[in-house]
Amino acid sequence: MKTYLSPKIGYLDGDRYQLAILSGCKQIIKHEKELNKLNVFPIPDHDTGSNLKKTLMPLVKKFPRPEPNINLISQEMADLTVQSAFGYSGIIFSQILLGFAAALRTHLRIRPGDLKIVVSNGVHKAYQSVEKPVEGTILSVLRVWSDEVTRICSQANDFVPILEISYQMAMGALTNTPNQLEVLRKNNVVDAGGKAFIYFLEGIHNLIKTGKRARISSDRIYAQEAPLKDRSLAPFCVECCIKAHKLNRKDLIKKLCVIGQDLIFYGAQHFAKFHLNTHNPEKVIACASLFGKISSKKIFSFSSDSSDREKLPFCLVADSTCDLMDDLIEKNPIYFIPIKVQSGNNIYTDRWDLIPEEFYRILNISHSFPKTSQPGLNDFIRRYHHLLIHYRSIISVHVSKALSGTFQTAVQASQSVSPERISVIDGKNVSVGLGLILMEGIKAIEQKKNHEEAVHMIKNAAMNTQIFIGLPTLKYLVKGGRVTKTKGFMAHLLNLNPILSISAEGKLIPVSKARGVKNLEKQVFDLIHQKKQKTVGGLSIAVAHTNAPDIGERISQRIKKDFQLEPVLVMNASPVLGAHAGPRAYGVALHYHSFATSDDTLND
Question: What domains are there in the chain, each with its CATH number?
């Protein structure tokens, strides 16, 4: 393509728009590692750069292509970015481009005076994409930039001064973010998302000055799923559960993807559940039977235009941070959105090509610390579209939004697909704590509650469920960046073992500590006894361990002895808990059905 932005720019068409957007994206991708280091808000998981790379790389790979009409190309670029969006930062950037595209819908090209409407619409969409906008983040940088673009647009007939002057104002807004947000000031950093947007503007600025596009390396990135296929091509759906002594999940998935489409899959060591669109249900069942004993199967013949009367009631969706027994997954309309796990150059999909037992083996032998990554926006959109063909509505329950951007991604996907038919709930928990909350959804299904009643039961369970996590070491929290090296060293020196919980706001907090591993278990049970005294009704208890079945069994036996209660779940914990807690940690989750006084709160 030979069209380049010149030093004086009087109009922007489709070709020039592509070059500008791509130059900005490439500049962000070039600074992936720096952006990761800056990421301390809203969740200090140091993946802003990585999430933006996953979001923007499909754009870089597909474009530019010849297209002079700015309305067509802006919409196409925005749609692709929405599909590939990862994390808070990825969602915000995708919404900026979506806002641009909406404002450009009636334009073949634009003049400088049109830019203020385009920019303000993009910033408005960015604010809308965040449940509770916080100043001191990328949003503040966007707002200052937009205000300056609006001010200059009425005075300029050239894009160059508009972009250059507004870039300087955005730089000032970024510098001010630590003054607006305490966590940034405390860590002596600027906002990672805001810095990414500055790089975006910098890429455009460099293109204006030199006429050359930035170059980036072709490092391996997360593979994106193929676009959602037209289900009318496959009028049947098979839902099947398989049990085997040692299930070959990888080969099963390969075979299923050949004979069907839009696979939803959940795998465990001896169990798998899948839902697949197909032309030939009998062939799917025959294929599945080669891998183990089919314990249950259903064949749906719904089409995308089925009436609500023909559909089943609501189903439950969770991310794979939720730990739940195989038999509950088999017997109930529960589906999972998998997280990703990266170890070195290898990228795994939880419950597809990785289960907890395999994850802990990798954790022990890997030279690099495994990182978990939330599902992408397109993962949710695909699943929601798929399931709404068979169910009237969806209740989607997820790991605490203070620990992961998964909840916000689910909210964004629900708004894109069908907000009136999808309820997204912040579980304010993780692992078996989330499992106990999902069990209230199962109870609602068994009691034939309607969607609203089920949502109420699940939200109530989320408020009344707490997990206590005993850590034999801080080593893995230090590696994951959740605890400083200094604090980790002091804890090791003093032989201190922390007990963590999740607050009413969903944040991971220390609630106690013990000197030595032996005292750790005693202290965990002391906390459970204190909470138990506040209950006058029922109590459900669940146990998670990080690849330590002996510890899980010992704690289960003690629960039976102390409380005359059988734990409803005893699970090897998901990689999200394991990556931060490390092997031989454990968690005990409590779901209270009632309390001694109305003034008592669960997470006090």
Answer: 14-210 (1.25.40.340), 231-462 (3.40.50.10170), 465-592 (3.30.1180.10)
